[in-house]
Design a protein that fits this description.
Layout: E1 3-14, E2 17-28, E3 32-36, H1 43-51, E4 58-63, E5 66-67, H2 73-78, E6 81-83, H3 96-103, H4 111-116, H5 119-138, H6 154-166, E7 172-176, H7 184-196, E8 203-207, H8 211-217, E9 220-225, E10 228-233, H9 235-239, H10 242-249
Parallel strand pairs: 3-8, 3-9, 6-7, 7-8
Antiparallel strand pairs: 1-2, 1-4, 4-5, 9-10
Length: 254
C-alpha cells in the first residue's frame, strides 16, 4: 500500500518526561488505520503531532514525502489533515449546521460584496449550507440541522463533530475516541460510517478503546506502549501478538 504519512524517529518530551521515544511508523493511504495502547502510551501525543497541535522534540513527519512536522494546525488542515478530539469542541450556542458551516472554507469575497449582501455572496452561503446539510446527513445527523449543539445527546455531538472535521475535505482524518458515550446502535452506525470513508478518498487514523469496533473496521493497527511502537499489522495479527496481549489486550480496561 502507498504510504500517506510517515513518522521517522519522532520523539516528544515534556520536561524530563518522554511521551514518545523514537517512533517510526508508516501509515498507508486508502484504509482505516488503528492506533491502540494503554492509557499514557502516547496515542494522543502522536495525534497532536500529526495534526499540528504540538511539535515533535525530534524526528520527521512526512505527508506524501513532504516534511510537515512543526507546521501549525491550520496549515496542515489546508494540506488535508483534519481531526476530532477526545473532548468535544463544538460551540454549544450554535446549531449543528452552523458548527459545520464554520469549518467550510468559503471562497474569498470582496468587502463591497459583504457590505452590500450582493447575490454572489448569498449564493456562496447557500452552497455552504447545502454542503453542511449533506455532511450532517452523511454522518446520520440530518434530522439535527437546526438543533443547538448544547441540546444534542453525547453521541449526536460526536456525529456533528465528525461532520465538521469532514467539511475541509481531508485526505487524512484523525478520530480520537469517536465512539465514547455512544449506544450500541450508535456505534454500529459509526462503524459503517468509518468503513465507508476510504471509498470517498479519506484515510482514517482511529484511536479507540472499543476493541470490537477497532478489530471490525481497521485494515491495519499500530500499537504503542510507553511511548514506543511494539507491534503493527492486521487485526488478526495484533489480536494474537503476545506483546500486545501482555501490554494492552489482556488488561481489564482493554
Amino acid at each position: 500500500m502507498t504510504a500517506l504519512l510517515q513518522l521517522q524517529d519522532v520523539s516528544r518530551r515534556f520536561g524530563g518526561v518522554a511521551a514518545l521515544s523514537n517512533v517510526s511508523l508508516s501509515l498507508s493511504a486508502g484504509v482505516v488505520i488503528g492506533l491502540i495502547g494503554p492509557n499514557g502510551s502516547g496515542k494522543t501525543t502522536l495525534m497532536n503531532i500529526i495534526s499540528g497541535v504540538d511539535a515533535p522534540t525530534d524526528g520527521v513527519v512526512l505527508l506524501e514525502g513532504a516534511p510537515v512536522h512543526g507546521l501549525p494546525a491550520n496549515v496542515l488542515a489546508r494540506r488535508g489533515i483534519s481531526r476530532t478530539f477526545q473532548h468535544i469542541r463544538l460551540i454549544s450556542e450554535l446549531t449543528a449546521i452552523q458548527n459545520v458551516m464554520l469549518a467550510l472554507h468559503a471562497p474569498e469575497s470582496r468587502a463591497v460584496d459583504i457590505l452590500l449582501r450582493l447575490p454572489g455572496l448569498k449564493r456562496t452561503e447557500g452552497r455552504r449550507r447545502a454542503r453542511a446539510t449533506e455532511l450532517l446527513r452523511q454522518v446520520g445527523a440530518g434530522r439535527l440541522v437546526e438543533t443547538a449543539a448544547g441540546d444534542l445527546s453525547y453521541g449526536d455531538r460526536r456525529r456533528v463533530e465528525i461532520a465538521r472535521a469532514l467539511a475541509s475535505g481531508p485526505r487524512l482524518l484523525l478520530l480520537d475516541e469517536p465512539a465514547a458515550g455512544m449506544t450500541h446502535s450508535e456505534r454500529a452506525a459509526l462503524r459503517d460510517l468509518i468503513a465507508g470513508l476510504p471509498a470517498q478518498g479519506v484515510t482514517v487514523l482511529l484511536v479507540e478503546h472499543d476493541m470490537d469496533l477497532m478489530m471490525g473496521v481497521c485494515h491495519e493497527i499500530h500499537v504503542l506502549n510507553q511511548g514506543r511502537p511494539i507491534a503493527s499489522g492486521t487485526p488478526d495479527r495484533i489480536r494474537n501478538d503476545p506483546k500486545v496481549i501482555e501490554a494492552y489486550l489482556g488488561t481489564e480496561d482493554a
